[in-house]
Each structure stands twice: as structure tokens, then as C-alpha cells.
Amino acid sequence: MSEKKSYGFTTTILHNDRQKPIEHGSLHKPIHTSVTFGYNDARQLASVFQGKEPGFRYGRQGNPTISALEDKITKMEDGVSTLCFATGMGAIGAVFQALLRAGDHVVSSSFLFGNTNSLWQTAAGQGVEVAFADATDVANVEAALTPATRLVFVETIANPRTQVADLARIGQLCRERGILFVVDNTMTSPYLFRPKTVGAGLVVNALTKSIGGHGNALGGSLTDTGEYDWSAFPNIAANYKRNAPAQWGMAQLRAKALRDFGASLAPEAAHHIAVGAETLALRMERASANALAVTRMLEADERVAAVYYPGLASHPQHALARDLFKAYGSLFSFELKDGIDCFDYLNRLKLGISASNLGDTRTLVIPVSHTIFYEMGAERRASMGIAESLIRVSVGIEDTADLLDDFQSALAG
């Protein structure tokens, strides 16, 4: 495989490990379990620690297996570098931990994954002001900006109500104002969408979800797309400015979030995720097609009150999603008409599994208000448009006809 020739998404991921030498001719980068790395020349060890030459120092900050996964994700996102973390929340937490200070201001989409919402509440308690805005319209984001705004954070497709952020216009706004644009790409994945195309400087992926795809490993990542000028970011410490400005952000993130905070990905998990990533495109195409078929069926059923999926023409941001994404993803949610108990409905499903993960090969369902969004309270749920009967679905790769029959049969009671 030539480095110079341009290959497609799946071909690139399948053969990426082989672009560097692998022990014994292995096709996969093997699992390196060592947490420490020795050097015959002590001067070389010092040079690695000082960042003057590449190498591994200690497992908390890097490992050959994790490095191979990071390189793979960088290729997926068409970025310049990637850092991996123990979880997706570890990756988002790294942004707060390494880049923000008391007195800073953040504008975040008001339509957020529940744990991300909780993280921003924690940040607010530690002196970072957080303003929540309806990111489906750039005007709302612009109105929330202040002179102290350091970054804007959005998800591509919101979990669980599937609102789609006004990504291109928000990216343009951030470019004009010199503000770091951070995009959580988990619900779309790098196969369906690359946030770099709308000016995102940092891209979050919860590797646990669609990239790993099999529900057998936790992980998260941050990718620097090269789109943001780190010389404009005021919170970079002097000791991370030794190299070119393009490297400042990742240097501080690696030190502050991995070395100091320790949210490190394990090599065994990195290997599982790397192998799962090889079929990302195939799985996303199948899951997206399944989701579209099931949501069309549910929308046409009189026993269903509402269906939220960007692939439906009735979705408020359908046109926006159509212009941005290759397909509409595996996530949707729906509400049942009054008189149909959501718990009873879920218990009648044979294929849909009551579980809290997303992006699995299997279809997973969960009653949102009573589980993952329960802690935030009824008032906050109402402000996010989350009804008490809302069911979130992460569609898998089962045969389409079987899923249609399962979701429809459960409506019959």
C-alpha cells in the first residue's frame, strides 16, 4: 500500500497499521502491556522526555498500541494528531482540565448528553462560566458570546432528541472571532461527517460507541484538525510553546490531561477499538439504513406521538443534516401516545435490548427520563424537550425486516 496514493475510508483504516513496521509481520498492531520503556542511552531518554525526539516515556502518556489507534483516528478525521483517553467523558473532561481557567467563558449547546451537561455544571462550580444556547441556530450562539469566551462546544446530532447543530455557520463564527470550536462527532462518526470541514479545531469521539462498535471496550479521543491557530489561545503555558504553535494545544493536553490527570486508555481496550474500527463504514451504512426504515414505520403509526430522527423530512433540521452528513446515523428517539406505557412497550421487544450504550452492533433501547436523564430533574428535562415517555433507540445491524417486525409487534400490545 503506497503512502502517496489516495485510498478510500475503509481501505485506509484496514491497512493503516502496516504503514509502519509491525513485529513478526502481524497485520494488527499487537497489544503492548508494558507501562515503562527503557533506553540504552540515557541521553536519548532525556531527549524523549524533553520532546526533542519521538519515543515513549511512561504508559500514562502513551504506548505503541495506543499510538497506532491514535494514528488511525487521525486518518479518519483528516486531522494532524490525536490523543486517546480511557472514556469519551475523559476526552471531554480533558478539554476542561487542560485548556480552561477560572474566569473563562464557554458557550455550549443546550442539547447535550446528560453526562456532558453534568461536566459543564462541575466546571461552572469551579469558576468557568458556561452559557447554554440552542445551537440549531448560529444567532443563539453568537448572542451568548462574551469577550471571555474561550471555546464553543456542540454535538453534531444531540443525544437523545437528535437536534442538529448549525455546524457550518457556528464554525464560521468561531473563525471570525478566533474562538476554539470543539465538536463532539460521536453520533455521526468520522465516516458520516468530518467536523474539520466546518472549521472545528478539536474533535471529540467516544470510541466506546460506533468506532469501537461492539460494546466491548471503553475509550475516547480528541483530534486536532489543524484548523485552529493555537497562538490565539491565551491559556497555553510558556513551557508548551517550545515548538511550532500548531503543536501547542496537543502538547498541553497530553501533559495536563494524560500526565497530570491520568485519564489514560488501556492498551487492551485500544486493540479492541482498533479492530472494531475496521468495519465502521460498513456498520454505519447498515445501521443508518435500519434507523431510517424503522423511523418511517413508527412515524406512520397512529400509536406513536412523535419520532425524532434527522433522516425524516418532518425533522426540523432535516435539510441541514442532508447537506452536512453522508447518512443520518443510528440514533433516534420517539414518544408513545398517552395510554401506552413505555416500560411495557420496551418489555415486549424481542430484539431491542434495554441497555444504555450507543453505537453497538445490536439494537439498544432505553427510557430516557427514568434513567440517563433522571438525575438532572424534571425542569431541566422539560427545557431540553425530553418527555417522560421518550424512548431512545440505538439501531444495530440486524436484518431490517426483523427490526421492523419487532418494533411494530411491540406496539400491538
UniProtKB/TrEMBL annotation:
UniProt keywords, alphabetically: Pyridoxal phosphate
Keyword flag Hydrolase: no
Keyword Protein transport: no
Gene3D superfamilies listed in its UniProt record: Aspartate Aminotransferase, domain 1, Type I PLP-dependent aspartate aminotransferase-like (Major domain)
InterPro entries named in the record: Cys/Met-Metab_PyrdxlP-dep_enz, PyrdxlP-dep_Trfase, PyrdxlP-dep_Trfase_major, PyrdxlP-dep_Trfase_small
CC cofactor: pyridoxal 5'-phosphate
SUPFAM superfamilies to which the protein is assigned, alphabetical: PLP-dependent transferases
Family to which this protein belongs: Belongs to the trans-sulfuration enzymes family.
NCBIfam families hit by this protein: PRK05939.1 (NF004609)
Protein name: Cystathionine gamma-synthase family protein
Organism of derivation: Massilia frigida
Lineage, top ranks: Bacteria, Pseudomonadati, Pseudomonadota, Betaproteobacteria, Burkholderiales
